[in-house]
Design a protein that fits this description.
globular, transmembrane helix, transmembrane, Methylamine_util_MauE, membrane, 7 helices, Methylamine utilisation protein MauE domain-containing protein
């Protein structure tokens, strides 16, 4: 089982969860689109979620070059959205997993870049969907477990960690811990 196949499927799992959340509640992504100056009707947020779910299910169920290419385009779009906001100095939450006040950071850029790279690898060396992995015996089961674990860790990295880091920084700022310097005062 190639490493890129495990990554591709793990990131498809992440995409599926993000898509389901947008379908259920499109308001956060619609707000992010509006703050970025893009068309922002809730129906567009919901439609984006449907596209994410369909593409991720195609990658997970059938595999192949075409679903990998489509997933690469979706993640490339996310990367362009994040980078364009960063370059404009706009701290716009991405709305990828629902309500969040934390704008995307380095982790979002890294994950989207890895997803695009995994998708390119999936186009160049297509793999089966996860159901085909079951026939691989123990190797397939381990690969499936890795997909679930990597997907869960990626979601934690994107959704939980930024909020936790922001909270820790806010608490440290409120504590107003005195700082010192080893330089002599002038």
């Amino acid at each position: 089982m190639p490493v890129h196949a495990v990554l591709l499927h793990a990131l498809a799992l992440v995409l599926a969860l993000a898509g389901v959340r947008k379908v259920i509640d499109p308001a956060p992504v619609a707000a992010s689109l509006r703050r970025s100056g893009l068309p922002s009707a809730p129906v567009l947020g919901r439609l984006l979620g449907v596209v994410e779910v369909v593409v991720s299910l195609a990658v997970l169920s059938t595999g192949g070059a075409v679903p990998a290419a489509l997933m690469g385009l979706v993640y490339l779009g996310f990367l362009a959205f994040i980078l364009s906001n960063k370059l404009r100095g706009a701290d716009v939450p991405c709305g990828c997993f629902g309500e969040s006040t934390t704008p995307p950071g380095v982790a979002h850029i890294a994950v989207n870049t890895v997803a695009v790279a995994a998708a390119v690898a999936g186009v160049l060396d297509p793999s089966d969907g996860v159901f085909g992995w079951i026939d691989e015996g123990a190797v397939g089961v381990v690969a499936l477990a890795l997909v679930v674990v990597a997907g869960a860790l990626t979601i934690a990295l994107l959704e939980v960690l930024p909020g936790t880091a922001s909270s820790a920084l806010e608490q440290a700022d409120r504590a107003r811990v005195p700082t010192f310097s080893l330089k002599e005062p002038r």
